[in-house]
Amino acid sequence: MQIYDLAIIGGGPAGLFCALAAQSQGSGGKSVWIRGGRPDFGPAYATPFDVHVLNVPAERMGAYPDQPNHFWRWLQEQELTFAADAYVPRLLYGRYLSSLSTQWDSDQITSVVIAASREADAWRVQLDDGSALLARTLILALGPPRQSADPWDWLLALPPGWAPPPESETIALRGSGLTAVDMALALRALGFRGRIHAYSRSGAWSQSHAPTKPLNPADASKLADDLTSATSASDVVSRIKRATGRAPWRSVIDALRPHSARLWSVWPIALRGRLLRHGLSPWNRHRHRMAPEIAALLSGDDNLVVSQAPPTSAAFTLDCTGFAYRNATEALPMPSLIADGHVQRHSLGRGVAPPERDDLAIVGGMLFGALIETTAVPELRAQAWDAVRRLCST
């Protein structure tokens, strides 16, 4: 049986970033990247529609922590003349990730991992083709848990020449966040001219990016320090609202991002739980913003509705409510690791807790709950490099 020093499980951006980190830092032995069955880097980067753009400027989407503008430089090398602050089509980011994956010069496996367990002083990784391998250390970079009825699966499985419902029909979108925005744009690109009705508890789309002067570092640190002493979820919200009375709200939200992990770790578990139940939706609406040009498309579409109530009738409904973090423990190979006590469900009921073992690391969306920011590229690349550094030092 093949024995590796490091096994990386996960074929999305988080898995790739771990592979790049292992290759860059040197894992101290032979590594294997187990990508799973998808040939791409997730459905959002496999979209064929140019209107599906990144929600972050190109200059901040690089795969390397010390080179955040690496993606933008790659675009220039491909003679794709986007501005550094442009919101680039996601299919180009998928090509960028694919180009980086060709740099991996160690073993690569496209089978799916179904279980992982301890065997002597190594991890036994069981694959769906019946084979297995051993690894001294293990990184799980599985990505956020997806819904069983993911709208991206529906979209990418449509046959060529799919005929949309007639203009007299309505298509409903359950949710009004960025996934709903993507589905609305795709439906228009596919030729649907009827009513698109998005509905959610907020009855509002995600906010858009806009030019905003950042808070100076001293004010940002002062704001974060002030929030550490908050005693309740409503106190957190009140202090942030007061801050937005002194500075633009985008500046306040952006200033908190580098401090989010520290704040989340010091707040009591009850406070964090209440924020997840009652504050996550408005936070996401303001934190995870759409490109300005996309916001303009939505506002200019008179047959696009967003409200708190669903339509009275619809040809069909797409569930756009986002990731299913409560299902994190069901994603393979989590059940085997949980059964053996190597991984625990997080006490907030969303995602899993960071493992306490020094030969196991988890990167990315599965840590939601333990972390509040753990799905975007800046966090993924930082976590990937940290995980590889820690495991390779043992």
SSE topology sketch:
Blueprint (H helix, E strand, L loop, with lengths): L2 E7 L3 H13 L5 E4 L35 H8 L12 H12 L5 E3 L3 E7 L2 E6 L4 E9 L10 H6 L13 E5 L3 H12 L5 E5 L17 H12 L4 H12 L4 H8 L3 H7 L2 H10 L1 H8 L4 H8 L4 E4 L8 E4 L14 H6 L20 E3 L14 H16 L2
Parallel strand pairs: 1-2, 1-6, 2-3, 6-11, 7-8, 7-10, 8-9
Antiparallel strand pairs: 4-5, 5-6
Helix pairs in contact: 1-14, 7-8
Q: Largest sheet at a glance?
A: 7 strands, mixed
In total, how many beta strands? 11
The number of domains is: 3
| CATH level 4 superfamily of the largest domain | FAD/NAD(P)-binding domain
What do we call the CATH topology of the largest domain?
Answer: FAD/NAD(P)-binding domain
Q: H/E order of the elements?
A: EHEHHEEEEHEHEHHHHHHHEEHEH
Q: From the helix content, strand content and strand pairing, which structural class follows?
A: alpha/beta
Unreliable parts = none
Give the overall shape, derived from the CA principal axes: globular
Query: Could you give the distance between the termini?
Result: 23 Å
Rg over CA atoms: 22 Å
By DSSP (H or I, 4+ residues per run), the number of helices equals: 14
Strand content: 5-15%
Question: In CATH's first tier, which class of the largest domain applies?
Answer: Alpha Beta
In round numbers, the mean pLDDT is 94
Helical amount: 25-40%
CATH architecture of the largest domain: 3-Layer(bba) Sandwich
Characterize the structure shown.
By secondary structure, the protein is α/β, with parallel strands linked by helices. The protein has 14 helices and 11 strands. The chain has helices at residues 13-25, 70-77, 90-101, 151-156, 178-189, 217-228, 233-244, 249-256, 260-266, 269-278, 280-287, 292-299, 334-339, 377-392, and strands spanning 3-9, 31-34, 107-109, 113-119, 122-127, 132-140, 170-174, 195-199, 304-307, 316-319, 360-362. A hairpin with a 4-residue loop joins strand 5 (122-127) and strand 6 (132-140). The protein starts with a strand and ends with a helix.
